[in-house]
Amino acid sequence: MDYRVIGRATHRALLHRQSRLGGAAASGCLAALLISSPAWSFCPAALPARLETLLRQDRSIRWSIAIADLEGRSLFRYRATEALIPASNQKLLTTIAALKQLGSEARLQTRLWLQSSQQVLILEGAGDPSFNRTGIDALAAAVPRDRYSQLIGLDDPPSGYWPAAWSALDRQQGYGAPLNRLILLENAHQLTLQPRALGQPLGVIWEDPLDSQRWQVRNRSRTVASQAAEFINLDRDPLRPILTVAGQLRVGSESEPVAIAATQPGQRFLEAFQRRLQSAGSSVETVRLQTSWPSGDRTLLTTVDSPPLRELIRTTNEDSQNLYAEALLRWLGREGQPDPVRDRRAADQAELRQSLQAIGISTAGLVVDDGSGLSRRNRVSAQTLLEALLWQAQQPTNQTLRASLPIAGSGGTLRRRFTNSPLRGRVQAKTGFLTGAAGLSGFADLPNYGPIAFSILANQPNATNLGSRIDRLVNAMAPLSRCDR
């Protein structure tokens, strides 16, 4: 399977594609082998030997593993304090810190102001990653029908759009969309690729019809026979709205949703708002972005609230949505509406570390380069993740976090893993995957033991099956029993 580009900025499309093509994401075969063997239970004292036997089969992999019951009693540790690349397990730290600092009902607020003396509208972005056309409509409904000289958008400077370590390729894709204060439709252009007749190019359908006018598409894709391999390549010109679509899908197969990052997210937001005002009978002569407030008095016209933090966290973890995680990290650093606007990425990263330290979580070896885990500069140990999970398990907001985690064999990025395992429906955990790095951290309700917390991180350059090896370790814990009962 060769799938180089994912859409919708999440692991979801990748896992869907891997499952459809028979990729390595599904762990059901390994679980089935375990189930086909005679079942037996074992006491906690036997768990280390059982897991170490499996680890010896993968000596080339760097592991960091920490497992404990919810009372904090250790069940297994293997290089638990070694900090590795966590991939999207980083989102656990971001969302736990956000719940602790902001509360589950906190909301971001996008505000619209009017300078009546100048007939200027001022849009104050809040970095709401969920902002969509409904929000645009709500803003427009508050604007008196009139002629306006200017629409000003207060936004972050482009220098803060991405962490420095994000690759140029990642910055082009929907999963690597830029972070700013004026976010619209996840700062991504969504499109669908449709197989056609054998030998024909794939159909390219833009979700926003205006995108088809803005973008030039060089279509080098094709529809192939039902036995052929499937893959998609998207290449976006970094300076011009030119998209090259390459790759192939099988004739009669499902359409494939993909996405590319918006090149000018703030300008895109303003232009969409300008068009909506025009359709409502108002006119705006010019639009522009700036990073500081214009001089003069202003009157608040309306405020558009984001969904509560608990819903944003659910999207962050369940779908492994990178932009949402970066927005939460920015929110942590700003603690509200900033004024003036400025690039605070370093302060955001420091705030996450300090938030974890404040609740007694070990940050030895911790390197925070982003909130999502897409950066390869991040370093986290399994011990840090386990301590964060155990702390969260004792908090009133624990159910909020648990509800955000994918469920084995059922929901989110785990829906196609553990499908034939006795742990199906019993594992709620955050997945993580980058080339050469994978992780799974969360909770498991073992049939004969009860709830545990665990973190398993694995790093190995160029490895392609780290996820299945992690699943094998988790499945090996299934027969654990409380022998004192």
TrEMBL record:
Gene name in the database record: dacB
Gene3D superfamilies: DD-peptidase/beta-lactamase superfamily (3.40.710.10)
NCBIfam families with a match to the protein in the record: PBP4
InterPro entries for the chain: Beta-lactam/transpept-like, Peptidase_S13
Enzyme Commission number(s) of this protein: 3.4.16.4
Entry protein name: D-alanyl-D-alanine carboxypeptidase/D-alanyl-D-alanine-endopeptidase
Keyword field contains Transmembrane: yes
GO biological process entries: peptidoglycan metabolic process; proteolysis
One Pfam family recorded for the sequence: Peptidase_S13
Highest taxon listed in the record's lineage: Bacteria
Enzyme class: hydrolase
Segments crossing the lipid bilayer: 21-40
Family from the record: Belongs to the peptidase S13 family.
Gene Ontology terms, MF aspect: serine-type D-Ala-D-Ala carboxypeptidase activity
Origin species: Synechococcus elongatus PCC 11801
Alphabetized UniProt keyword annotations: Carboxypeptidase, Hydrolase, Membrane, Protease, Transmembrane, Transmembrane helix
